[in-house]
Structure to design on (226 residues):
């Protein structure tokens, strides 16, 4: 099975900061990688799929990059609504889907 | 528009059984793999299992943590996915989501809460 390692686990930042979250896969997943934002009591919200495709309706300050085993989610200028927990997910269909451990983004 | 709606969540005693359903619409259900994912309180997301599409004979796969206790099935005529859970443990307490990928784009339901407690 493919293991996903996400870092950091916690990130403190100011409104307006540029932040980056990293996800590493234990083997290549090509670009079958999604990023989610989750707030307490809610289902995960899709931000990015196929590593770099922005989900419809998601602000352009969110961007994704990478392929193979290294991926990043970047928020170019943090807004108050962005403070949440973020997860990556690989979806190579030849393997069980797996998730990163999550990154809690906190207000500094 | 792809829509997934889970139902059947409940409070159940340890050792009990429960069946969750996921009603799907907006796509050709039989053509797509369907997955269950769960999230225990305060924890991360955990893949539970998969029902593959008709082209792969609806074969199923399971996480080690539920294998032998949970069974995934589907009714393509009803556009529905099921998760039958037996021998439930307190550690199975979680919100259970059904999800799928529509040509690479993920879609999730809102989830169903299963609480295993005496």
């Amino acid at each position: 099975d493919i293991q996903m390692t996400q870092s950091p686990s916690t990130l403190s930042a100011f409104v307006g900061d540029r932040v980056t979250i990293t996800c590493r896969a234990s083997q290549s997943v090509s670009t079958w990688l999604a990023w989610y934002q989750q707030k307490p009591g809610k289902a995960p919200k899709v931000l990015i799929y196929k590593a770099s495709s922005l989900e419809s309706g998601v602000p352009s300050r969110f961007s994704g990059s990478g392929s193979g085993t290294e991926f990043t989610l970047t928020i170019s200028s943090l807004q108050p609504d962005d403070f949440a927990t973020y997860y990556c997910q690989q979806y190579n269909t030849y393997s069980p889907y797996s998730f990163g451990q999550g990154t809690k983004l906190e207000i500094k | 528009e792809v829509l997934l709606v889970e139902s059947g969540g409940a409070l159940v005693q340890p050792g009990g059984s429960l069946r969750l359903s996921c009603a799907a619409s907006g796509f050709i259900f039989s053509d797509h793999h369907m997955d269950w994912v769960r999230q225990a309180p305060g924890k991360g997301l955990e893949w539970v299992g998969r029902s593959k599409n008709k082209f792969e004979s609806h074969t199923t796969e399971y996480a080690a943590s539920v294998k032998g206790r949970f069974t995934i099935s589907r009714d393509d005529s009803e556009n529905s996915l099921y998760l039958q859970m037996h021998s439930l443990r307190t550690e199975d307490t979680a919100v259970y989501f059904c999800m799928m990928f529509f040509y690479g784009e993920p879609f999730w339901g809102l989830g169903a809460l299963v609480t295993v407690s005496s």
Remarks:
- DSSP finds no helices and eleven strands in chain A.
- The two ends of chain A are 36 Å apart (CA to CA).
